[in-house]
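Recap from last week: sequence in, structure out.
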Amino acid sequence: MGFFDKFFGGKGAATADGPKGSGVRVARRSTGFHEFTKAIQKPEGQTILDLGPTSPSNIEYITQLGHRVYNEDVISEANEKGLIIPGEKEGEMQIDVAKFLHFSLSQERETFDAVLLWDVCDYLPEQLVKPFIERIHRITKPKGLLLGFFHTKDAGPDAPYYRYHMKDTQTLELQQGPPFRLQRVFNNRHIENLFHDYTSLKFFLGKDNVREVLIVR
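Predicted structure tokens:
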């Protein structure tokens, strides 16, 4: 199976290819990302988890703040064919949740100071959403900060999957990635229920039919 763990430290530590798809990037201002960046400025030496495909821009951005960045492409891992197993009913197929959690997000408890969720929850297969959030809670430090993006009902089921590249403290660049399908749309109450074990949530009115949420572990 194609599971890879990557740590990067120091300035200009690594380069990598972006996700498959169009190489065109579209700039998008993000209040949530701006607030996230302000919150992780100090102290140096934090460990940040980026849950999108590897982005040289993000690696450079985070390491220049004096932090380490860990990258895990959760959506690609969740769509690995090796995770599909027979279900209880004849002809039914399901995802092997235990296997996914064994290979993905298998770090020690309270490893990360902050997590970039992006819009992972919207694209994860249904069986993985709750276990995924529980695992993120486990590997994030108390008072650790998460940044999540959630599509609104106006986005539509064909909303393209994007990789988010950090450009500056207020701007992200969106690059279309693999053709993963939007699985669901959470309203505010759904999001609050999903993160009921977390300390607090702060919502921002985003653009492009996306709401932004800062979540404190």
